[in-house]
Amino acid sequence: MTSAAPSTNPSPLYLRISDNLTQQMASGALRAGDRVPSLRQLSRQMRVSITTALQAYLWLESRGYLESKPRSGFFVRTPFARLIPIPQFESRKSQPTEVSTDAVLSDIISEANDSSNIPFGVACASPETFPTRKLNLILRRIIRERPHHSARYEFGSESLRRQIARRSLSLRCGFSPDEVTITSGGLEAINLALRAVAKPGDVIAVESPTFFGILGSAASLNMKVVEIPTHPQEGMDLDELERAIRRHHVKACIAMSNCHNPLGYVLPDRVKKTLVELTGRHGVAIIEDDVYGDLTYSGSRPAALKAFDRHDLVLLCSSFSKVLSPGYRIGWVAAGRFQKEVERLKFLTTVATPSLSQLVIAEFLESGGYDRHVRRMQSELARQADLVRHATASHFPEGTRITRPAGGHMLWIELPPRVNAMKLYRAALDRHISILPGPIFSATGRFKNYIRINSGSGWSPAYERALMTLGRLCERAVD
């Protein structure tokens, strides 16, 4: 086993040790059932403290790579035929960048409406996972009993805002119904939040990679973005974030701490707290994108960043699109001190949000059906993520790395450096397979050998054949 020091790798020391061990598992040097070095041995071999060695083993145990046996030590517990390494993390300094929309985005819209495509590129789970029948029953009853349901503007259904406020306790950031603004989906919530805290020409910090819709929002508002390198499991490089805030006068930071799109992580509470304290010290607003937060695989709802907000600078944005129905277009924002400005901008932009969708979702939440549905969806998405990871690891070229999501239904895949993601994207479309190329998740066109795949579209022999095809195409889509 090689020594962990010295190193220029910016990752925490225990993560570097963990990565060293997982690489040995992947290469076969350590196999399922093997006993790993004792804490004292690891401490000597890696020239680290026993505390750091224990931290590395506990991290590996929490993710299923190791299991501890009383009085015997730690043993390799490999859940897959071969361990799949996660994408690499590289810290780098970034400069503010003017964002331009990409031609790929227009393709994405047309692909989403093409039912002949295998939908690995879409950002929605399979329609079968949504509670469509129950929502339709509620909808029919409302239409029958309240025929004038949409005869006036609905500036945020009181019953829906009340249900959202009640659920805020599970996010550990309780707020009242009056503090909630209903929007037309999560992206409108983010757009309104951005406009409330910044103006054209301002610099916004974003994760890298980040959801391409956020980059599009910044571009449409003529704002610049500074990309903060983001670890596949530990989140943004907070040292680099603070450097960017000091050097570039960052006005706001957009962050997705729960079930990140595309990386899939759920940040530990200690990291969330550190992030919010950092931005709070500098008076920087955080726009929190929490649209996937209910879909964590652990079953327990993770806290929002807003739970750690002591300066009232976190604007919490979410929606029901990823959990109940994309077409209902119901989102919301709890904007704290910026609420009046968000409400004003909402009125100037779209006036109000459709009434019927709000009434249906409010009644479903009140019935208690939402929590039961979420539990089923969490279990199904976790199962599907494992299936797609297995198949991808089997069919993609050697050197492929895949994230291990803690929730949601996105897999971020690092392909061998020779593979060109844009070429692979277009070759896949020719075979009616939609994926998303990595460069659209970066304002500067990074991630040229990365793709994002949706693992929540269900599973079938046709889907596995599509992954086999993608694997073969990787060998041709090279620079």
Describe the protein in words.
By secondary structure, the protein is α/β, with parallel strands linked by helices. It contains 15 helices and 17 strands. It has helices at about 15-25, 40-45, 50-60, 105-110, 130-145, 160-165, 185-195, 210-220, 240-250, 270-280, 340-350, 355-365, 370-395, 420-430, 460-475, and strands at about 65-70, 75, 95-100, 120, 180-185, 205-210, 225-230, 235, 250-255, 285-290, 315-320, 330-335, 400, 410-415, 435, 435, 450-455. Strands 3, 5, 6, 7, 8, 9, 10, 11 and 12 form a nine-stranded mixed beta sheet that branches. Helix 10 links the parallel strand 9 (about 250-255) and strand 10. The longest helix is centred in the C-terminal third of the chain and has 27 residues, at about 370-395. It is globular, with a radius of gyration of 23 Å. The two termini are about 35 Å apart.
Please report the distance between the alpha carbons of the first and last residues: 35 Å
Beta-strand percentage range: 5-15%
| General shape | globular
Helix fraction, binned, reads 25-40%
Rg measurement, Å? 23 Å
Main sheet overview: 9 strands, mixed
Overall mean pLDDT: 90
Structural class: alpha/beta
* Record field, number of beta strands: 17
Provide a count of the helices: 15
Uncertain spans:
2-9
Brief summary of the model shown:
The protein is α/β, with parallel strands linked by helices and 479 residues long. The chain has 15 helices and 17 strands.
